[in-house]
Each structure stands twice: as structure tokens, then as C-alpha cells.
């Protein structure tokens, strides 16, 4: 065991395992910045709902105070509350110019704004629906972040595969250019063949530069949603495509969030309208007063109940009602738009998936045919019965078909993930709502 530990330490740290598409999606769904922001907003909405619900019940407050005053009114009242008032002392004193009086007090106050007509209940229902909408929106953000990771992963994988293919083609093109130059030097060909060969090398190198830029951009996009450490790991191959369900079995989270937001807006509208009606306030207070904390304490209790009717608020009530009504109309429109957009995305994703499948099939056929054509032209060129330009064109056609297969396969993976999301499923993984 000691020898093994020494050997492993000398060998250095093990390389990180390849990053799979499913892992990238899970990392984005769990820790993307947009996900963290959405979860914080959900927690904020839940706290607001709890606060709104708390307004339906009574409140209880305890207070402790220390006071010194020579205000005639306060001195007289506090003397009564401390239960130290006597007629003899009052007659001997100067009520208009009393001395300073110290007062220590403790009190308990219970208050309940009774929701007689339901305005507070409607406001609480609105806050609860808003919290539920935020929760659905957070789930949707997790899934869209996972789709972003899928798209970036697929783009990076395509770029890496394209670079490997282009690297092989660059080596062949450089050999072709060397052969063409040698044949021209020996007088077997014209200057056109070396020029064509050099042009083929330049074209391949331009494609390599383009794919390197695509790879850097895709890695940067992956880093933005899963973190820099995970984004620098080697990429596992793209998984084999799987069948996508024919229809959505659940309501999409963004559509459900929009519906809940519309419900919250309707409840706010109703709460604003009910705020015109009076409210019933019930209040009870129990107090203790003493000249010193260790002295004799006098107590008193007060109960109050009354209606409050809003009569005039300089147009504030009407403005709140109009604002809430407009917000409800806008939320209803957004909900309808979300459902229509969901249907559009399903149709568009299905079309994109079908197109990518057809493109992959076509490019695979083209790749096979182009490979055969290149082998034939290679043999004909070596026999001296085909032009060098024909061989270069055959190589270019085979390269285009190979790059087309990689592109179509990548598009198919992204289109399948997009369709799953549009149907209300996770972009990759199990068939979970």
C-alpha cells in the first residue's frame, strides 16, 4: 500500500473525467447564475406571501418604557396610573407647576384588523399565487439553463470533432501541395496544379481558424452556466439520440407561471376594489406603571372597537383600483401569449428536429458517396487518367460531407432537447415533468 501511494504521488494528480452532456445539464440546472437569482426571487415571494397571510390574524406587542417629565397633564395622568393619587396631596400641590415625575411602564397590546369584507384575504391569495408563480418560473429557469448548457456542449463537441477532421485534411492537403510542386518542378504539370493545392491548404486552415473560434465561444458559454472548472474538462462524446414523446404530458412551467401570475393579478384587482369598504379594528391594552422598578405598580386595561371607512384619499383609492385592473388585464394577455408561444415552440422544435434528422441522413449518404468518389479519383490520378483538380475537388466534397454530418448530428441533439423543453420535460435525462 505504501509503494502504491508513493507511485500515485509521483505520477501526479489524475486527470478529470470527461464531462458528459447529462452532467453539464445538471450542473447548469443546479448552479447557473440565473438559477440562483430565480431561487432568491422565489424565496422573496414566499416571504411576501407569509407576510400577507399574517395580516389576517391579530398582533401582540409588549413594550417597556422609562420616562421623566414635568408636563402637568402627563404628571397628573401618570400619578393616577401609578395609583398614588390622593386628594390631600393633590390639594397641597401646585398642579400647574408640578415637579419632575419618573415613570417605569410595561404594557401588552393586542390588535386585530378584522377582514370583514375580504380585502386582506384577497391580498393574501394574490401573494400566495405570486409565490407559486415564482416557484414555477424558477423551475423553468433551471430547465432553460440546462438547455443553454446542452447547446454550448453540443457546439463545443462539434467544433472539436470538426478540428480533428480538418487536421487530418490539412495533413493530406499539405502532402498534395508538396506533390503538386514537385511535379511542376519536373515539368509534368502546369503552374495551375500547385496553385490549386496551395488554395486547398489555405481553405482548410481558414476552416480550422473558424472552428477554433467556435470552440472558444462554446467553452465560454459553457463556463457561464456551469463554472470555469467544469467547462475546461474534456468532453465526452455526444449521446445517441433517443425518441422524444409525441405530446406534452404536463403543463409547461412558464405557462403555469403566467397563469398563476394572472390569478395573482386578478386577486390584487379584487382586493383593491374591496378596499373601499370599511374595516373593523379591535384593540386591547394592559399597562403597568410605577415610580421605580421595585415600587408599587398600578395597572389599567383598555379595550377599543370601531369601524374605519375610507371616504377621501385624494384619488389614491381610485388610482390603486385602476392600476390593479390594468395589471390584471396585462397579466391575462401575457398568459395567453405564453400559451401561444408554447405551441409555437413545440411546432418549431418538431420541425427543427425533423430537418436535422433529414440532414443527417442526407449527409451520411453524401459522405459515403464522396468517400467512394475520392477513392476512385485517387486511383485514377495515380494511373494518370484523372486531373489533379478532380482529386482536390473529390477531397473537398468528402470534407464538406463529413463536416455536414457533424453539424446535423449536433443540431439533432439540440433540437431534441429543445423539443423536450417545449413539451414541458427536462431537456435531457428521464421523462420527468
Task: Characterise the protein shown here.
By secondary structure, the protein is an alpha+beta fold. The protein is built from 11 helices and 4 strands; from the N terminus they run αααβααβααααββαα. Strands 1-2-3-4 form a 4-stranded antiparallel sheet. Helix 3 packs antiparallel against helix 6. The chain is elongated, with a radius of gyration of 39 Å. The chain starts with a helix and ends in an 11-residue tail after the last helix. The mean pLDDT is 90.
Strand proportion: 5-15%
Biggest beta sheet attributes: 4 strands, antiparallel
H/E topology pattern? HHHEHHEHHHHEEHH
The low-pLDDT segments are none
Q: What is the number of helical segments per DSSP (H or I, 4+ residues)?
A: 11
The total count of strands amounts to 4
Q: Whole-number radius of gyration?
A: 39 Å
Distance between the termini: 48 Å
Q: What is the helix content?
A: 55-70%
User: Which structural class matches the secondary elements?
Assistant: alpha+beta
Give the integer mean of the pLDDT values.
90
Strand order of the largest sheet: 1-2-3-4
Q: What overall geometry do the principal axes of the alpha carbons give?
A: elongated
Amino acid at each position: 500500500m505504501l509503494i502504491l501511494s508513493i507511485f500515485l504521488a509521483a505520477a501526479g494528480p489524475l486527470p478529470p473525467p470527461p464531462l458528459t452532456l447529462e452532467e453539464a445539464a445538471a450542473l447548469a440546472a443546479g448552479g447557473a447564475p440565473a438559477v440562483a437569482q430565480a431561487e432568491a426571487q422565489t424565496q422573496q415571494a414566499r416571504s411576501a406571501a407569509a407576510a400577507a397571510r399574517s395580516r389576517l390574524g391579530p398582533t401582540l406587542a409588549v413594550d417597556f418604557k422609562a420616562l421623566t417629565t414635568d408636563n402637568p397633564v402627563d404628571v397628573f395622568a401618570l400619578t393616577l396610573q401609578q395609583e398614588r393619587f390622593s386628594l390631600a396631596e393633590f390639594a397641597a400641590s401646585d398642579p400647574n407647576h408640578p415637579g419632575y415625575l419618573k415613570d417605569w411602564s410595561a404594557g401588552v397590546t393586542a390588535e386585530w384588523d378584522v377582514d370583514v369584507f375580504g380585502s386582506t384575504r384577497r391580498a393574501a391569495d394574490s401573494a400566495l399565487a405570486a409565490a407559486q408563480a415564482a416557484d414555477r418560473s424558477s423551475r423553468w429557469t433551471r430547465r432553460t439553463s440546462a438547455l443553454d448548457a446542452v447547446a454550448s456542449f453540443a457546439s463545443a463537441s462539434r467544433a472539436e470533432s470538426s478540428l480533428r477532421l480538418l487536421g487530418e485534411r490539412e495533413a493530406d492537403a499539405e502532402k498534395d501541395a508538396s506533390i503538386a510542386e514537385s511535379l511542376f518542378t519536373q515539368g509534368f504539370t502546369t503552374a495551375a496544379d500547385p496553385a490549386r493545392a496551395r488554395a486547398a491548404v489555405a481553405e482548410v486552415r481558414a476552416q480550422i481558424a473558424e472552428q477554433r473560434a467556435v470552440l472558444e465561444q462554446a467553452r465560454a458559454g459553457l463556463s457561464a452556466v456551469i463554472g470555469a472548472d467544469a467547462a475546461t474538462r474534456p468532453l465526452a462524446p455526444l449521446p445517441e439520440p433517443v425518441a422524444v414523446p409525441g405530446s406534452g404530458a404536463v403543463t409547461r412551467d412558464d405557462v403555469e407561471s403566467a397563469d398563476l401570475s394572472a390569478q395573482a393579478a386578478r386577486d390584487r384587482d379584487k382586493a383593491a376594489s374591496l378596499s373601499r369598504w370599511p374595516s373593523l379594528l379591535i384593540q386591547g391594552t394592559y399597562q403597568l406603571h410605577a415610580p421605580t422598578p421595585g415600587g408599587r405598580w398600578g395597572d389599567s386595561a383598555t379595550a377599543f372597537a370601531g369601524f374605519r371607512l375610507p371616504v377621501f384619499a385624494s384619488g389614491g383609492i381610485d388610482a390603486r383600483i385602476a392600476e390593479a385592473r390594468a395589471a390584471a388585464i396585462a397579466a391575462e394577455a401575457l398568459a395567453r401569449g405564453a400559451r401561444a408561444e408554447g405551441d409555437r415552440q413545440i411546432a418549431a422544435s418538431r420541425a427543427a428536429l425533423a430537418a436535422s434528422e433529414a440532414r443527417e441522413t442526407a449527409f451520411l449518404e453524401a459522405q459515403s458517396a464522396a468517400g467512394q468518389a475520392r477513392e476512385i479519383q485517387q486511383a485514377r490520378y495515380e494511373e494518370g487518367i484523372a486531373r489533379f483538380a478532380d482529386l482536390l475537388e473529390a477531397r473537398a466534397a468528402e470534407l464538406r460531407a463529413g463536416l455536414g454530418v457533424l453539424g446535423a448530428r449536433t443540431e439533432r441533439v439540440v433540437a431534441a432537447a429543445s423539443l423536450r423543453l417545449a413539451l414541458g420535460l427536462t431537456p435531457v435525462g428521464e421523462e420527468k415533468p
